[in-house]
């Protein structure tokens, strides 16, 4: 068996994944948090599009977090998350040097990145962080990249400099016009596609409504569109079916078959409703923790 | 002769149980266990057959008459050590084995009366050991210097690990979830198998030198080949049947419809019944439907009740006689007030305005001729459709093979349903030095049959590691 691969982390021992927070940064008026976590084994295996599941503590729930960057040499992975409930609020309060109780990964299908030509990368909100990882992979294969990133106002835009460094063209949009073009990313995309006829692929990562709208725009132009879905998950390994989504009329598990899917085939309305299933409990959990 | 008559005079000792009205509101065990006097009385019923049939009925061949005799004589610790010679998880088996289909079914006393309560006695001995300070830990033989990897810490993986460790090998278990135990912790509810007991059995394994790493998904963090790169000389795959099966009928993605796996994981693994002290919610409405007729369906039904459902109904497409669930579990469910609709099959789920399930449209079924497996087929009765209101549905119609590991192990041959092909005796797969057993080979079965497979594979792995010739390393 010829399998002694040369890899910087070949000698990493199994118990070295400590899940310690190495760095933490709060962005977008503290609504988005960036964390760099020590996880050498995951760092050496993770590929663009994959995610981890983590637990903060012994009573914690399992939550998925997309890996937005990895450094196999340093043995770290980076996640960005928006604070939307109890677990993400707890995470925001954690300090550098503290550990997560459990981290498992890399989960999901790695994205198939190829040298294809002109690719448009559309990012909304925290989605831009996920998009960034994928953009790096397309850059590495020498594609022509057009980035369109947007948020409600200029303070909520993240990774603008980084995306600007990777993309051949970068368009920034804000709802209120405080930076870049005034309007939504979808409007900017629509305008771009009207004038540029050699776009081979569009990636869209952001709120569900945004990904649905982008897919509707690219459909008449007949441009392949990929989106990254974020349903509720429990185990993340295909065991429970909680994250099931309908893609092209078939049931797919986002954790095993995705989380990236062909945007034109996704039943967004069903997914949106499924994401609301535990709203009452989520509220109760938050209230309970502040009592 | 006198011993036989004496034994026949004593009836089978009843297992004390929680009464129905209190037990449906808590997650404590229903059977409470024998006390020592009752255990000795029950053990004295055994007529010590010269050719004990009960041993033939045991998938791991425990020396049943020997341990029963030790209990009769009051030598409780010796009894548990005798059991542990063959069974690595006696506290688990004493609770979840279908003894009525195995050892107790073969007991001669069962011909004219009730068989010896072998399962109850096994549980007694295991629980008794727990109350004693750790008297004697069986020490493994001297280290062989060989390393084996076990993927999955369910019953089959734990058995392989224990057996190989006792033979002196260095064993590492890789578990995908954040806690070891597999179906013992995520599937079987607390009121049938307390998690403290599973933890205790795993601590025993660790005392034998077995290393357990959680949050390690083989097929993702390492491939099987990478395990060999890291110095393991044999790999055992006990990953279980961890893929939920849905029926594919309209409306199945409505809110309020969960797979049994999801529901049980939220409750058992994530302790959803303690929400909001724990963070994972589990939703149970007022009117719960459980689709299916196996032990998993019974677990879902009885758990829903304990979570506060007002009405719990099991919908099963065949009749009571064909239900695969343990009769014991069905009886307990019936006692607890769970309704059973036999010969009933869902055909579609109906939604309210908020995309929650509000009713099931079902059809009545009738039994037809047996199929190749011997089970009777069912055909829908035309025009028999009816709609029943439910706000929660738990789909417990089986589990399939999870592809996470096999998809990155191309030389591991699978059968047409995605299960691993393995030698029925040794568990050797198509991939050299890789063995498999349990549900991932057979499809959903029992804890004890997974353990039996693990036991046989451990022997084969041991022979391979030590270079003992009768096991080939390649197919």
Please, could you describe this protein's structure?
The complex is a heterodimer of chains A (291) and B (475). By secondary structure, chain A is α/β, with parallel strands linked by helices. Chain A folds into 3 domains: 14-107, Translation factors (Elongation Factor Tu (Ef-tu), domain 3), CATH 2.40.30.10; 111-226, Nucleotide-binding domain of ferredoxin-NADP reductase (FNR) module (Rossmann fold, 3-Layer(aba) Sandwich), CATH 3.40.50.80; 229-291, no CATH class. Chain A is built from 8 helices and 15 strands. In chain A, strand 11, helix 6 (208-221) and strand 12 (224-228) form a beta-alpha-beta unit. In chain A, 48% of the residues are buried. Mean pLDDT of chain A is 91; it is low at 1-9. In chain B, the strands form 4 sheets. In chain B, strands 3-2-1-4-16 form a 5-stranded parallel beta sheet. In chain B, helix 3 (36-43) packs antiparallel against helix 10 (118-131), helix 5 (64-72) runs antiparallel to helix 6 (76-84) and helix 15 (260-269) packs across helix 16. In chain B, helix 16 (295-306) links the parallel strand 7 and strand 8 (311-315). Chain B has 3 domains: 2-131, Fumarate Reductase Iron-sulfur Protein, Chain B, domain 2, CATH 1.10.1060.10; 147-242 and 400-465, FAD/NAD(P)-binding domain (3-Layer(bba) Sandwich), CATH 3.50.50.60; 246-397, FAD/NAD(P)-binding domain (3-Layer(bba) Sandwich), CATH 3.50.50.60. Chain B has helices at 2-9, 20-23, 36-43, 53-56, 64-72, 76-84, 90-96, 103-106, 109-112, 118-131, 155-166, 183-186, 195-207, 224-229, 260-269, 295-306, 327-335, 439-442, 447-465; strands at 147-151, 170-174, 211-213, 234-237, 243-244, 257-259, 287-291, 311-315, 339-341, 344-351, 357-370, 376-380, 386-389, 392-395, 399-400, 434-436. The mean pLDDT of chain B is 92. At the A-B interface, helix 1, strand 6, helix 7 and helix 8 of A face helix 14, strand 5 and helix 15 of B.
């Amino acid at each position: 068996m010829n399998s002694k691969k040369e890899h910087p982390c070949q000698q990493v021992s199994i118990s070295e994944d400590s899940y310690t927070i190495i760095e933490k940064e709060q962005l977008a008026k503290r609504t988005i948090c960036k964390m760099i976590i020590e996880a050498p084994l995951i760092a050496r295996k993770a590929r663009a599009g994959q995610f981890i599941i983590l637990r903060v503590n012994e009573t914690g729930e399992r939550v998925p977090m997309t890996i937005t960057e990895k450094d196999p040499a340093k043995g770290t992975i980076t996640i960005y998350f928006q604070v939307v409930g109890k677990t993400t609020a707890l995470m925001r309060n954690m300090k550098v040097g503290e550990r997560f109780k459990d981290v498992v990964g890399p989960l999901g299908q790695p994205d198939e990145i190829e040298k294809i030509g002109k690719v448009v990368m559309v990012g909304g909100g925290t989605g831009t962080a996920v998009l960034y990882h994928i953009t790096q992979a397309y850059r590495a294969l020498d594609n022509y990249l057009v980035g369109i990133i947007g948020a409600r106002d200029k303070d909520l835009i993240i990774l603008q400099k980084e995306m600007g460094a990777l993309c051949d063209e970068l368009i920034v949009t804000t709802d209120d016009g405080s930076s870049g073009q005034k309007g939504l990313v979808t409007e900017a995309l629509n305008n771009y596609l009207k004038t540029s006829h050699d776009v081979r692929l569009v990636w869209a990562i952001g709120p569900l409504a945004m990904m649905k709208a982008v897919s509707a725009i690219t459909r008449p132009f007949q441009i392949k569109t990929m989106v990254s879905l974020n349903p509720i998950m429990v185990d993340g390994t295909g065991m429970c079916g909680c994250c099931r989504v309908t893609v092209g009329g078939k049931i797919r598990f986002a954790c095993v078959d995705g989380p990236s899917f062909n945007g034109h085939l996704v039943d967004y309305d069903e997914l949106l409703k499924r994401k609301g299933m535990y709203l009452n409990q989520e509220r109760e959990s938050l209230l309970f923790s502040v009592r | 002769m006198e011993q036989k008559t004496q034994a026949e005079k004593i009836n089978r000792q009843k297992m004390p149980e929680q009464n129905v009205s209190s037990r449906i509101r808590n997650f404590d065990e229903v059977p409470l266990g024998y006390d020592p006097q009752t255990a000795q009385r029950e053990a004295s019923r055994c007529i010590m057959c010269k050719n004990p049939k009960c041993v033939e009925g045991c998938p791991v061949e425990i020396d049943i008459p020997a341990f029963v005799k030790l209990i009769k004589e009051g030598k409780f610790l010796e009894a548990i050590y005798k059991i542990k010679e063959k069974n690595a998880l006696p506290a688990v088996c004493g609770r979840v084995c279908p003894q009525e289909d195995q050892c107790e079914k073969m007991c001669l006393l069962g011909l004219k009366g009730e068989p010896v309560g072998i399962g109850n006695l096994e549980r007694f001995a295991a629980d008794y050991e727990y109350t004693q300070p750790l008297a004697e830990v069986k020490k493994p033989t001297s280290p062989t210097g060989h390393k084996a990897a076990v993927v999955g810490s369910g019953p089959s993986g734990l058995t392989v690990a224990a057996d190989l460790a006792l033979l002196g090998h260095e064993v590492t278990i890789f578990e995908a979830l954040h806690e070891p135990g597999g179906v013992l912790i995520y599937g079987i509810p607390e009121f049938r198998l307390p998690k403290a007991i599973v933890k205790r059995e795993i601590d025993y394994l660790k005392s034998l030198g077995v290393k357990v790493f959680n949050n390690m998904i083989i097929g993702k963090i390492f491939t099987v080949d990478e395990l060999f790169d890291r110095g393991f000389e044999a790999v055992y795959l006990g990953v279980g049947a961890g893929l939920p099966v849905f029926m594919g009928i309209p409306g199945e993605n409505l809110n309020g419809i969960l797979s049994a796996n999801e529901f049980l994981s939220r409750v058992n693994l994530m302790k959803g019944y303690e929400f909001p002290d724990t963070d994972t919610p589990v939703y149970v409405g007022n009117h719960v439907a459980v689709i299916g007729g196996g032990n998993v369906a019974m677990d879902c039904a009885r758990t829903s009740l304990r979570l506060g459902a007002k009405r719990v109904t099991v919908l099963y497409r065949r009749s009571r006689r064909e239900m695969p669930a343990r009769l014991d579990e069905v009886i307990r469910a019936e006692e607890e007030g769970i309704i059973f609709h036999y010969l009933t099959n869902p055909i579609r789920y109906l939604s309210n305005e908020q995309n929650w399930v509000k009713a099931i449209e079902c059809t009545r079924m009738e039994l037809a001729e047996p199929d190749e497996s011997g089970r009777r087929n069912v055909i829908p009765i035309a025009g028999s459709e009816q709609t029943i209101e439910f706000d929660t549905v738990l789909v417990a119609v089986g589990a399939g093979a999870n592809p996470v590991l096999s998809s990155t192990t191309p030389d591991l041959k699978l059968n047409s349903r995605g299960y691993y092909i393995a030698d029925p005796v040794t568990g050797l797969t198509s991939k050299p030095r890789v063995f498999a057993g349990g549900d991932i080979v057979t499809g959903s079965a029992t804890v004890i049959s997974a353990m039996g497979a693990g036991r046989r594979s451990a022997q084969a792995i041991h022979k391979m590691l030590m270079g003992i010739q009768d096991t080939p390393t390649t197919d």
